[in-house]
Amino acid sequence: MKIAGYNINLEKAVKTIKENDYKRVVLQVPDGLISHLSEFIEFLENKTDSSVIVSADSCFGACDFINSEFINIDIDFVIQIGHTPIPSIEDFQIPTLFANARSDLEITKVIEKAMPFLKGKKVGLISTAQHVHMLDNASKILVKNKFEPIIGKGDVRIQVKGQILGCNFSAATSIVDKIDSFLFIGSGNFHPLGLLLSTKKPVIACDPYSNEVKAKELDDLKDIILRQRYGAIARSKDAQVFGILVGLKRGQQRIEQAYKIKDMLDSRQKQSYIFALNHFSPSALESFRDIDCFISTACPRIAIDDYMQYKVPIITPVELDILLGLKKWADYQFDEILP
Predict the structure, then answer these.
(1) What domains sit in the chain, N to C, each tagged with a CATH number?
(2) Are 281 and 199 in contact (CB under 8 A)?
(3) What is the mean pLDDT of residues 201-215?
(4) Which pLDDT score is estimated for 67?
(5) In this structure, are residues 243 and 273 in contact, taking their beta carbons and an 8 Å threshold?
């Protein structure tokens, strides 16, 4: 199915529904494709005998799939649009299909526009789910222009070579010693910023949607974010009561890390509590007025992207190590969810 500049393999979903005679289907759609919701529903219901229920909660990524909450209303099948699966997660309680939204935009011009900003000849090619299928073509363009492109393989959370998640940059860190700079293909700032912080190598981002290239802008944004993170740690220096946040979304649960953090705080005579949440928001945490500092083991974006929305500082596990003197600020690392 082609829609809004994307190819989405809903034909595979139709085939699966028919083969298994599924009658009740849940559809998860990211915010960026919500405007096409009626077209997705019409496509599925016209080609199958199923009825479609829409999950009205926001869908943030492959980590945010429907698990057990729909079992009680007899759901047969879940379709999540816009993401690739996390290979290390297999035991779905409800059969689930990830229908990635693959961009069909032309990338030649924006890559050529990015070339003058690349540092050195050895270039690591990186992208997100929507554009990762374009990396082979991008590689050919770079080779033609005398560059040496390298595409890294990620860990067990990554399905496709060269793909990064907002919480996992292993496809980049696996080749960081082999390249001079990274070329990121995609939109937004969070992924290339995370790439910059996790690898500490130059990152040039080219956006096929806007035809814009970012290099210095990312460095400037990195400095702003690092100042914010330093400020969050500084605001927490006198904290005595900590709230350890655990995400309930299957793809971002780090409960064992939460217990380790609690043990570490206990050994330093700090009081701590573990809070489990599905959806994080300022209003969800404001009730816990005795907490001086939250530590998020869930999605890294909660502490970084949404930092200014929270009255109480939220830090990452790496930042807690700095706060407790176990690491130095010079050792700062981007928080990742790794195997």
Answers:
(1) 2-101 (3.40.50.11840), 108-214 (3.40.50.11850), 226-331 (3.40.50.11860)
(2) no
(3) 96
(4) 67
(5) yes
